[in-house]
Give the backbone structure.
Amino acid sequence: MTPGSLPIPDSTSLVRLLGLGPTAARSALRARLTPPIDPRANARLLAALNRWGTTPALGYAGGAARHPDDVAVIDLDDDLRSVTFAEIEHRTRAAATALQERGFGPGVRVGLLGRNSRAYTEALAAIGRTGADTYYLNTGHSAAQIAQIAEREGITKYLADPSLAGRCPGDATFTLAGGDWEAFATGSVTAPGKPPATGRHVILTSGTTGVPRGASRTSAPVEAVIALLDGFPFKQRDTHLIAAPMFHAWGWMHHRLCALLDSTQVVLRRPDPLRVLQAAAQYRLPVIVTVPVVAQRMAQLPPEQTADLDLSALRVVAISGAPMPPPMVRRFSDRYGDVLYNLYGSTEAAFATVATPADLREDPGSAGRPLPGVKVAILDDDDRELPPQRSGRIFVGSTTSFEGYTDGSDRNRVGGLVWTGDLGVIDEHGRLRVMGRVDDVMIIGGENVHPLEVEEVLRHHPEVLDVAVVPRSDPDFGQRAVAHVVLDHEPDEAFAEQFLAWAAQRLAPAQRPAAVIVHDALPRNAAGKVMRRHLMPEQ
């Protein structure tokens, strides 16, 4: 019997094949996951899962077994443009062979420095297959910052975009996106055996409040990964545009989810909002994955720029990594429909909650409800769990929480739950609302003031496009709030006085800004988070 004449299996076959529990099974069935038609492909898929687990080393083995001739990656900035699952799996195996010949292996720490690209996705798998540890370096880091991280972490080899390679210290740097990488990926293949140890995947914290730290990960249970499908209506073989950096947890996690779902990934170097929407129309994309600041800029695009774009296939715009202002959530949903999904998590805790379009219609500031298998608790300063509608510290527990920092330290844990570093409250409907970072709380005249609460009010000012509130020292009150704003026009001389008077009518005395500073743009990292420390005055 030829493979083409075999009966097409239903989704329950995959549930049995992977041994999924009830929760993950329901999610798998909703996503219409199916195993390969050919029993030989089943065997290859199980062999790959047995060898690599759900780590990035699995690469595109699943898609190569199930859909070898379908497109795996479309790179909008690459002359090669698109590759099939069979082609990219072969390229990954060839690259792994070349890296092993150059000393990549267990115990070696590799810095990966690049923007989203086909080569970057291949490198994730190829490095993993050598057993080396992968450190995901931020493209916003300077040469001095990378050197500091490399010295602390013991990084000795690098793969980097050609335009970024000069920031890597030492002489063991190989280039992505052509040059070295194309030679690696088109070379000979030696099937690597399973490394004696699974390489770590170290994602650096965003560093918004200090020096980035390495958070180590290896693998996640298949059930935990599939549980994400309970929060997002993804389906097997969807096409996803990933406009979130893969060196951060959100983009990295979504790349891994796409590989497990055999989804076609569309990638581009820089997530310009108009270009993202144009690609969504061109490829009839059902899913865009990005960061809140990009979604916010989509909502702010002049209507005439998007009037001719057919976005009728779009059913999910998934965001994570930073708060999206509630007014912008409403504006986005009114313009593009109920397609916005907001995931809350952290580098340390991984995914925690998802706010669906229905949640965001009811409460645009909501972070949503916990995903299956995830516990979210609000604890007071004595580590006691608080009831709904009482604010405190957010703790999260799941099988995907990180294993600790690479320097041997750990995040504060209570009963298996990891502190996210944020403050929040669970409302009467069981939805989480994030109030901001504990480190960002200002103490003004003896009162705790949360910048996000102040910013939410200031965003309603008719001239304000963006805002961040930070403290400055004050001899009378200890601290006072300063509003840093981006306007829709050049301010006149009376703006500051009028703005502060407007704010004073709408905020409690301790919350009122003592000053306002106008910027062309606020300093943000690649995930869209405001780098508040860059706005702080020198003490």
Notes: Confidence is low (pLDDT under 50) at residues 1-13.
